[in-house]
Amino acid sequence: MKKGGIKKVVLAYSGGLDTSAIIPWLKENYDNCEVVAFVANVGQNPDELIDVEQKALISGASSCYVVDLREEFVKDYVYPVLKTGALYEGKYLLGTSMARPIIAKAQVEIALKVGADAVCHGATGKGNDQVRFETTYAALAPQLTVIAPWREWQLRSREALIDYLKQRNIPTTATLEKIYSRDENAWHISTEGGVLEHPWNAANADCWAWTVAPEDAPDEAEFVTIGIEKGEVVSVNGHKLSPYACVATLNKIGSKHGIGRVDIIENRLVGIKSRGCYETPGGTIMMEALRGLEQLVLDRDSFKWREQLGLEMAYVVYDGRWFAPYRKSLQAAAESLAEDLSGEVVLKLYKGSVVAIQKQANNSLYNEEFATFGEDEVYDHRHAGGFIRLYSLSSRIRAINTNNQKRS
């Protein structure tokens, strides 16, 4: 049954099997509407972008926009989250979660530019991405109709999608054998499906795409110097680089040492548990560097507050609420804390581990004269007694009251 009222749709297009089938499906089911393909370059494998415009046109798109979002993605999405220290469920560095809002935002901008009535994505009805795309659409252009084919069509298998394209003489390089589902951008690559669908199966070598196995990493450690200004990584080994170049450089260095592998069973927003292998080599190095510098600069209460910000931010980003006021308020707090977070950190990379071994900062609160276990002239140990007496005053009063009640 054809649906009317939609004249032009902008599709978030990847060139893969799903979105290639979506283009003719939209035209057939939405009264031969015009389909504009939008491709976001967020740092995925360049091979995926080869001939992507031609693929979209062959599938039936009227035009195809390829937008380079790599620098904006790292600078305006990755770096702000990194300042908060956000880790979803203590493990996941939010690679896919951070990419979706910038993709959806750019898609909306194209839709408004070309005068589209609707936007469309290829996310399934089981995953988190449908939420992330659609909350962005709602926040930025609620007037646009949202089309989610996986919630409408009857195509339920890879074989069905291939047959669908074959019947319409639309070429595809996809095959029936696709064991794993992968998502790649400048920050990370994720792998799901295949042997990972059973939690008792150990991840095999095919589950990892970027990093070498830690046991196969070099036997010699490598030392990396990270320069940080106001909570942002600005240099690697003394070379000033753009945010994207910093990540790309550290990805190469970290990958050869097996850095940044995570095998996690996570709780999806829709209530399903899923398992994925995530590789975030550069991000893991950056996270360790920033957290190491915080140890010098942040006082106890500020550090505790930053940890709370990270916990909240992890859920906000994972749940697709990037453009919500709550995310902006959390970010403002993190930016304030990061004002003094400038310095340099040296990290040791060795067979899957990364450790900050040297740290320095102009705003460091660490003072060797106070911290030393040797003799010093700046700290009077006798002062600690008065502090402890005041600190424990409520406990002392409670005990006195309890003893008095027992006597009466």
TrEMBL record:
Question: What is a single molecular function from GO for this protein?
Answer: argininosuccinate synthase activity
Please list the residue ranges annotated as the Arginosuccinate synthase-like N-terminal domain.
Answer: 8-171
Its primary localisation, in coarse terms, equals: cytoplasm
EC main class here is ligase
Binding positions (ATP): 12-20, 40, 122
- What CDD domains does the record tag this protein with? ASS
Gene Ontology CC entries for this record: cytoplasm
Where does the Arginosuccinate synthase C-terminal domain start and stop, copy by copy?
A: 180-397
The record lists L-aspartate as bound by 124, 128-129
What's its EC?
6.3.4.5
Checking NCBIfam families in the record gives: argG, PRK00509.1
HAMAP family to which the protein is assigned, alphabetical? Arg_succ_synth_type1
What is the name attached to this protein's record? Answer: Argininosuccinate synthase
Native species: Candidatus Schmidhempelia bombi str. Bimp
